[in-house]
Amino acid sequence: MSTFLLELSYLIGSITFIIGLKQLSSPDSARKGNLVAAAGMGIAILATILFHQKDGQPIGNIPWIIAAMGIGTVIGWMMAMKVKMTAMPQMVSFFNGMGGACAAIISIVEYNAHPEGSSGYLLTVFLGLIIGSVSFSGSMVAYGKLDEKIKDISASFLTYLNLLLLVLIFAIMGIAIVQPDLLGHSVVWILLAISFIYGILFVMPIGGADMPVVISLLTSLTGLAAAFGGFLYDNPVMLTGGILVGSAGTILTVLMCTAMNRSLLNVIIGSFGGGGAAGSKGASGDQTVKEISLTDTAILCAYAGKVVIVPGYGLAVAQAQHICHELEKKLEEKGVEVSFAIHPVAGRMPGHMNVLLAEADVPYPKLVEMEDANPTMNNTDVVIIVGANDVVNPAAENDPSSPIYGMPVLKVWEAKNVIVMKRSMRAGYAGIENELFFHPKTKMLFGDAKEMLGKLVSEVKEL
Amino acid sequence: MANFFLENQDLIYIVILSILLGIEVISNVPAILHTPLMSGANAIHGVVIIGAIIVMGHAKPDDFLALTLGFIAVVLGTLNVVGGFVVTNRMLEMFKKKK
User: Fold this and answer.
1) pLDDT digit string, tens, across residues B44-62
2) pLDDT, tens digit, for every residue of A322-381?
3) The complex's ipTM?
4) Is A253 inside any structural domain?
């Protein structure tokens, strides 16, 4: 009976994961989908504690399990509730790392319990260990990078070192399976250590702009690690959940790469801002930029018919989404039509900007996707670019030597006036020069996005 | 090879169908939902916690390494599950308010 209830719960869990994911991919049902998946997870966990049996033995140490779950729930809940919306991507990365670590630990314990298992068993254990620990250390580095605790370290030798480590990992794993006596039982710790280092070095040289792709990739890796756990315990809900996330995460990764017009291989191996960047930098070196004062900006916007705001990561860093909404309201009071043009990869994750602006109570219809925004650019009077750079770079359209050539961008230069709000002339996340800043229509407004927008709002108010 | 296939036929079916389902379910998602979706998927792979519970639940009382590691694994797995779902819910809550 208990086996029946367990398997039934696992079936329910698997189905809720599928329905949950499906509902998550449509705006109307997304929230329900998340709750459905969470409920299914709860059922599967509860059923495991109550009904799981191994060799006729029920689950023991229940007080400890509940204590551990209590600790995890309190910490996880608090972290998730306290995190700022701008810090969402690194939070996802952090939780992803936890799942990876969990999978790696399971493999260690399982190996220690049955070091003489069959080769199929050992393969499953080792793969879970390797993928789990790569996902853990990689996610932690991604977390550190997005939180600006870790700087980019790019060195071309890292590519070769990483390749070497990868070969080493699989070689050791192969030997440990075929000739278990050769390396002894400590092989599990060796594999853990090398995988851990590989995870760090794998993410380290990848530029901040590509971090969303990396997190998505690491998420699908953790899914895979969970699936190996499913193989290990012949556990259908772990298997379906893990594989679903693995394949969905991979597709999401590919979608993100497509949005940036880059291949996955290019993201992982290629270093951004190489030869092409140097070329375009030289070309624009002797050009000058035009600055504009706050008052002029306010007048220009307040008397415009249509204003489009292009938010970028700079807006997120400066936490300027609320003041941006304020500006939008003030301009609308003056009879100006205001909308937000959102590039699919604006911010640090696709959809990140929408989440941020939604947090600031910007109405849904005001958020215009790139495909719908571009055709209306030529009858727009003023485009205000707040902390965006690469997503409005004309080089993507007209400079084949540029690393971002071919990436779909917002054609802001087709508007009548372009105002770029930026902290300095520093290059964008991708590390490449932006021709737009030297465009005859462009005027620069230097300063912190939040501060400048605040001043702009009061200027507009006084008009 | 043939033996492996026959022995694990059920699992292979589950794996292949799950892969196809994952691709099918995701492929039409609008860009605005990419972040919540990634976060939701992140919470779902927290299902690995079931493995941690099994490890912990069947660890022998004198096997302190297994008990300690199992305990940590359950904590980390719970972090993944709870944190993942709560963060996703918070993101989606903001979209809902606008309706």
Assistant:
1) 999 999 999 999 999 888 8
2) 898 999 998 998 889 999 998 877 776 767 788 888 878 888 788 888 888 899 998 899
3) 0.92
4) yes
B12 touches chain A (CB under 8 A): no
User: Are A157 and A258 part of one and the same domain?
Assistant: yes
* A64 and A184 co-located in one domain: no
List of residues 6+ apart from A393 with CB closer than 8 A: A402, A404, A409, A428, A432, A434, A435, A436
Min Cα–Cα distance to chain A from B44, Å = 6
Q: For chain B, how many helices (H) and strands (E)?
A: 6, 0
Range of the domain at B20: 2-97
Residues 6+ apart with CB under 8 A from A78: none
| Subunit contact B21:A244, Cβ cutoff 8 A | yes
Is the pLDDT assigned to residue A279 strictly greater than 50? no
Contacts of B30 in chain A (CB under 8 A): 25, 27, 369
Is A65 in the B-facing interface, judged by CB distances under 8 Å? Answer: yes
Domain that holds residue A72: 1-82
Chain A's closest residue to B66, CA to CA, is: A109
| Domains contained in chain B, number | 1
- Structural domains counted in chain A: 3
By CA distance, what is B52's nearest residue in A? Answer: A106
Question: By CB neighbour count within 10 A (0-12 exposed, 13-18 middle, 19+ buried), where does B8 fall?
Answer: middle
CB contact under 8 A, A25 and B28: yes
Residue A88 lies in a domain: no
B29 at A interface, C-beta within 8 A:
yes
Q: Which residues of A are catalytic?
A: 390
CATH code, A450: 3.40.50.1220
Is A347 inside a domain boundary?
Answer: yes
Give the DSSP letter string of A141-153: HHHHHHTTSS---
Backbone phi, then psi, for A307, in 5-degree steps? -120, 135
Q: Phi and psi at residue A343, in whole multiples of 5°?
A: -75, 140
Q: Is there a single domain that holds both residue A433 and residue A352?
A: yes
Q: Based on the domain organization, do A113 and A224 belong to the same domain?
A: yes
Name the residue among A33, A108, A223 with its Cβ closest to that of B69.
A108
